[in-house]
Structures are given as C-alpha cells and as structure tokens.
Amino acid sequence: MATYDYLIVGSGLYGATFAYCATRQGKKCLVIDKRPQLGGNVYCEEVEGIQVHKYGAHIFHTSNKGVWDFVNSIVEFNRYTNCPVANYKGELYNLPFNMNTFSKLWGVRTPAEAAAKLEEQKAEAVAALNGREPANLEEQALTLVGRDVFQKLIKEYTEKQWGRSCKELPAFIIRRLPVRLVFDNNYFNDKYQGIPIGGYNKLIEGLLKGVDTRTGVDFFQEYKDTWQDTADTLVYTGALDEYFGYRLGRLDWRTVSFKTRVEDMPNYQGNAVVNYTSHEVPYTRIIEHKHFEMFGQEVYQCPKTVVSEEYSVEYREGMEPYYPVNDEKNNALADAYRALAAQEEKVILGGRLGQYKYFDMAPVIEQVLHSFNLL
C-alpha cells in the first residue's frame, strides 16, 4: 500500500505550493528534488549578507489579491518595484518604453510629441511592407515601435536572448510591445509587487513546513517505474519530453548561465537589473542582488555587493532548461506530448517545464490554488 497520497517531483513554486495545499487538506506528500537544495529556480544563496538569486532575478508581481494575500500569509513581501535600465553602448534608457525613454531618444517633452515621433517611424515600417503582413520578428517590431527603439533596445538584445537573427524569429513572438506615454519606470502594470523579506527560501520553507522532502534524488533513477509503490498520485514538474523518454523527439529550450562575483564596494550599478542591449557586450544583463531587498541608506550599510552577469545560451543535454521555445515546430511537438500526458492515470504534469509554457511566478501559484478551489 502506498505511503503517500502524492509524490511531487520538483520543489519549485508549483511543487511546493501543491504540497502546501494538499497537506492542509489532510493529504500526505513526499517532495523530491534532484538538486541539493529545495526551491527550484527561486532558490537564494546568502553571500556577504545579501540574498543572491542563484538562478536569475525573480520579481513577484500579480493583480490577483487572493494570490498576493496567500504568499504574504507565508512570508511578508517588501515594496520592491522593478525599474530596469537598458545600456546601449554606454547610453542609458529607462524600461519599459515610456516618456523617459523617448525623451532620451528624441528630446521630446510631451506625450503628443512622443506619439507623433512613434507614429512617423511606425508608418515608415508599414510602408516598407507594401501591404503584406510582417514575416518575422524584425518586421513586426518595426511596425510596433519604429526603427530607433528597435535598433537600440530590441534588435541585438533579442538576438542575444534567442541566439538567432530577428529576421529568423517568427513575428508572433513580439505581437505586443508595451509603450507608455507617461513618465513611469515601473516595468509591471500589476497592482502588487515585491520580494519576500529574507529571500525566496523563506517562502519555500513556509510552503514545505511539515512536508517530507528529499534532495539529491533523481526521479528517473529511483522512482520512474515504481512510483505507484510510494504514492497514489504523481505530480511531475520536470521537463515534459523527458517524462516520456523523448519518444516523440526532443523539445527545444533556451537556458541561461551566470558569472557571479563579489565587488568590494557598496553600490555597483545603482539598480537591481541593467540590460545590455548591444552585441558588443556578451551578456544580456547584470543583476545586482542587494537592490532587491536593500533601499536607501541600507545599500551603504552593507559594504560589499554581489553582481551576476547573465548569458543566454542554447540548451544542451546536462544543462538546466529555462525557457520553452514557442515556435510552431515546438508547439506542435508539445501538443503531441500533452496528448500523451492526458492519457496518463493519476499523473499531474505542472509548472513551466511540465507544461512547456512560460509562466511568471504568480500564475503558477494561482493555477495550483485554483486546482484546490482556494481562489
């Protein structure tokens, strides 16, 4: 007879939230993770008194008050607001595209002046198409924001991210680009935004409190063929194609790598996230972790700082998959795998890897809460 109601593979936000909800309904869960620690990609490591986002910047944002109240019931969140800066060959621009961006680009002072300049450049791009639809990402972006924004803030950054020319990427990837005719550098439009005080480990620890966990465990080596001996139901949050032994072929992923170092100064770049949009710099952005949780004078009370250069690379076997490549080929293959998944009895595939869909953090939690009728 099975010992657990659920065997949960992966201790990221989907797995940890599922375990929390099931446990509160009286179910018994075992959470396993192949990494030596819990938390998936939101895991933080303390360095020089700073919570370092080991697997990249994670900024929680949502407009769903139920989700915001839920995470704050586990750990209090701070008031961090994401206001990234773009560095193009030494020129600094505010993101998302807003009046500060346009003022720096064109010297415009009013929304009407900015709108006129945008429309002028968009009209050039539409005219160049001569009546046809945009055939690739480059053409699509030019019709949305024009040549100046595209050349300095989109083109080379996107090519570094995807490892492909903008002319080789499908147009649908960038059907929408946020343009704001206000002086507002807040990247997100969501009502609620912040970082768990003390780092994301506090959130994971709270979600998994009282839950049996095992780290350093490979599901495919220890449980794949015998999990029914351990649990009634399997919750799998690993890669969708790997679960099925790649029988239909391999899905493509993009991944990222980091070069992290300690700087002997209190303030390296003055912002948590600075994107480097030119090919002249090999990394896509630099993250200065202390700015997620330290504000004002606190920044200088901590004498050192930790920065991470982030590099976008093509996934190869043995790497950590990060981002699904949602082009037509991969979407069709993922649909075929999802059809197989629908035939699996007592198996739930969840999360970004398990569903081969890009999710922000809040929608993952929202999805689990809905499945337990808690929203």
Which short descriptors sum up this protein?
375 residues; alpha/beta; Rossmann fold; 7-stranded mixed β-sheet; 5-stranded parallel β-sheet; 16 strands; 34% helix
3D architecture notes:
By secondary structure, the protein is of the alpha/beta class. Among the domains are: 4-82 and 190-246 and 325-371, NAD(P)-binding Rossmann-like Domain (Rossmann fold), CATH 3.40.50; 99-174, no CATH class. Helix 1 runs parallel beside helix 12 (361-371) and helix 4 (111-129) packs across helix 5 (137-162). The protein has helices at 13-24, 65-74, 99-106, 111-129, 137-162, 200-207, 219-222, 240-243, 298-301, 328-342, 351-355, 361-371, and strands at residues 4-9, 29-33, 44-47, 50-53, 60-62, 85-88, 91-94, 192-194, 212-215, 231-236, 253-263, 273-276, 285-288, 305-314, 323-324, 347-349. The strands form 4 sheets. Strands 7-6-12-13-14-11-15 form a 7-stranded mixed beta sheet. The protein has a 5-stranded parallel beta sheet with strand order 9-2-1-10-16. A two-stranded antiparallel ribbon has the order 3-4. The protein is built from 12 helices and 16 strands.
SS strand fraction: 15-25%
CATH class of one domain: Alpha Beta
Q: Strand pairing plus helix content: what structural class?
A: alpha/beta
> C-alpha Rg, in Å?
22 Å
- Topology pattern, helix = H, strand = E: EHEEEEHEEHHHEHEHEHEEEHEEHEHH
Numbering strands along the chain, what is their spatial order in the largest sheet? Answer: 7-6-12-13-14-11-15
